[in-house]
Amino acid sequence: MQSRRRNLDFFCAVVIVGLLAGCAGLATSAVLRFVEHLTYHYTFGTLLDGITGSSPVRRAVGPVVGAVVAAVGWWILRRGTEVPQLERTITSRGRVPRLAWTIDALLQVVLVGSGASLGREGAPRQFAAALGDVCTRWLRRLSARDREILLACAAGAGLGAVYAVPLGGALFALRIILKTWHPRAMGAALITSSLAVAVGSLITHDRPQLHWPNPDLSFELSGHALLLAPLAFAVGMAFNRLMASARPAVPMRTWVLVPALAGAGLVMGVCSHWWPELPGNGRSILTVSLASGMTLSAAATILVLKPVLTALFLRAGGAGGMLTPSLATGAAAGSLLALAVNSDFAADLHVPTVSLAGAAGVLAVTQGSPVWAAIFVWELAGPPLWLILVFLVTAAAAHGLHLLAVRQGPPRGRR
Prior knowledge:
The protein is mainly alpha-helical and 415 residues long. The protein is 72% helix and 0% strand. It folds into 2 domains: 2-204, Orthogonal Bundle (Clc chloride channel), CATH 1.10.3080; 219-406, Clc chloride channel.
């Protein structure tokens, strides 16, 4: 009887967490759009549309203002409060800093929405976990392991809600945070992520975040996946090392945060005059890559500048996700390879496919899970189902090279 009641409590908590994670995704997406529209003064379209249509002064000043607002908020927050890492807090079963995570998530959205080269996925994960912890504490029969599973599922479902990726959100909780295939965790992750994506569809409309051009494809593309893996491995390792060296050992807590982040925002604003795809989490880069809209020189420049600018914001004291910046860096690497091969060898590589395969390979290296990376990338764009094989082969091969290299002691990236 006691076990049955505990299972009932767990099921109720799973439903509550899924719905709340969807609300967290809605809230952070709404705030992000508001900040983007305010920064670049546009009404309709994507962030890239807003940037290209804004004035030169607004492009330069907008990221600076947003960075200053976020920096002042972090200066106040960090002076008296510790903001621990989400994954470490969940797996160590530590106390959940609900208010600190919520405020930190809001500041992340302000910074990313104003153009910072950081991922927006950290905010809904933190907010969803904080909401989930608040609303499941009254279920007294839940064990410590149950709460760990629920918090991980909340974080994964928050990710799934903002990107409309139910499988990606569930696998993030299972493979990236919990690192398990336990049936109890699997069931909870699938339910919470599905519910969150359903709630988040009020904004995402349950459509892929990226537009797949959908021309005719050849199955011969699967043979090129292994050839792309060494490049994805090299880019992923370089990204990891750069972020590890840029991230301060202790979060910046002094007034230096304000001029440091303002300076990073100014650099971003200046760069956006020539490369408007750079501001934000990286979606603009992925959009242009899938549309085959990059030139060879632009792909090479973005491949370098995207991780460098991400490291700059980290070094200046900013906080945000690493998932989408690494994804965008991988897409730029794939585009560069496809464009170079097509130009030099008169080949006909399909740029969108190679771009997404590169993104999956780099993501597998930076996050440590090739299965999740392949499925997440596939869900983002919604290409033909068989392309999961191409993404999985690239991701698994790049991840295998990474595991061989890790045995020799290189640093591993953080999320």
